Amino acid sequence: MELPSGPLARLNSCLFMAGHLKREPQAKVTSGFSSVWLGDPPFDPRPAMRWTGQLHSWMSRFFHDKSEPPYRVLPYDRGGMYFAVLNGKIGGKSAGKPSTT
Asked: Which of 16, 40, 78, 89 is deepest in the core (most CB within 10 A)?
């Protein structure tokens, strides 16, 4: 995803990851669904991420998006509990600020 120049405050809601990233799908994508994570969680996130990608495709078609908008899921460990940062658009409406669930 490329963004035009903008205010520095745009970085306030960014998440940066460094290290050996694992991803689903394994090939890098610039639109549609993708997920990246670090380390080895105590479960295999790939089946859940594949299902989430399929759900995103279904929702995009339901809302008649002209093209499948980007949607990112970033699972991470917080002391043994896993959370996911979600960010994206569906049906032309922004999902808003990234949130943890």
From this structure: 89
What does the pLDDT look like over 39-49, one tens digit per residue? 888 888 899 89
Give domain status of residue 1, yes or no: no
Q: Within 13 Å of residue 2, how many CA atoms lie on the same side as its CB?
A: 1
Look at residues 37, 51, 28, 34 and name the one whose alpha carbon lies nearest to residue 82: 37
Predicted TM-score (pTM) above 0.85:
no
* Pick from 39, 36, 77: nearest CA to 53: 36
Listed residue (13, 75, 82, 10) closest to 38, CA to CA? 75
Secondary structure element (H or E) that encloses residue 54, with its range = helix 46-62
**Domain carrying residue 64:** 16-100
